[in-house]
Amino acid sequence: MQSMGMNIVLLLSLLPSAGPDDARLKSLADAYQANRSSFVNVDCRFEVQFGKCATLEDALTGRLLETRFICDGRWIVRGPLVRYDFVRRSQLAPGDTQTVPRQRPTASTHGPYADDRYLINAGHILESGLAPGNVSFYGPNSHDGMGIRYHPFNTDIIGPHEYSNPQRYVEGCLTGRLTGQYDGLEIIGGVELEVVSIGLPGAVGKARMGFDPRRGHLLIYMEDSDPDTGRRRYAAYVTETQACSGGRWIPTRRISFHDPDADGTHRTEVLIVGQLNVDDAPPDEVFAMTLPAGMQVDLGRSDLERMPIKGERTVAATELPAMYDEFVKRGEELKRQKAKRRFFGGLQRMLRLPWSGTMWLTLSLVVAIVLLTVYWDRRSQSRMK
Fold first, then answer.
1. The pLDDT value given to residue 4
2. How many helices and strands in the chain, by DSSP H and E?
3. Strands 81-88 and 66-78, bridge-based pairing
């Protein structure tokens, strides 16, 4: 018994333990998430300018050397329901230049190259626009790798659907997958922030995050670096915020400045909120999407084929769980029908061939097995009666 107790103590000592920095990191991430989660109702219109800047100062003040394209966004939230539109503007503002021709969206393009529309009900996600003629439909057990990436809380820096949020970084530290440290108070962009660094164990480059304790612990600054070289990939700043009811805070202007350590011009994204309502619950009718007839539904499962929409269909977000189950059943039935056609097609091809004795014996055995199965099924049913 004593040796067993010593073994348990030894195993526990090998598990990752939370140090003082991890506790501080968790406190900051939880405070950030508390403010973020308080926005249960949102109706926000915004634009994102995609262009280039010569310096960080130009980016912070919005002096773009060129505007390659502008996307108009609308982000509507009511609890688990989300409606999202991110559409590339056909006409640029006066003085802007579109230096890159509009590309035909494909399954591999995203963001400014494709119009994205989402309808979400918790774990059910309907996405239209990324690939022409297709709509992607994800269930609770499938993964949307593209996702919503641009809105006031995210300019493509914390992943699709905010998957790589500060809490997830801290979870990585607590499990030992990542290491983190509390860097203390720093003035970044003229604002005093609580800064943390998190990255892979032994990595040169890490992600740095700056939280503002005076404004709901908003993530005001974030940079990410190459883990091998330490060269920064981007630096992202929130330059304007809005105080909301209940002591909540939301970003209203943010910029992402790419490859800040390089010479020359830098790819830059500027998000500007135009209209915002975070107090009133959006009505039911806005949480809907119309799908044209013939659009192919892709369930994101390799074992199920795409299926066409039968006639134009307007889908409400509240209908998504039932609609997903409907298409899964259709897909499973199509898979069974395809398997039957493949079986009987192979049988027909066999019958056309010159048959050997072995082939006749195999066919006889198959027929016998089928007849025995039918016989035993009927006998079992008669006994149950």
1. 42
2. 6, 19
3. antiparallel
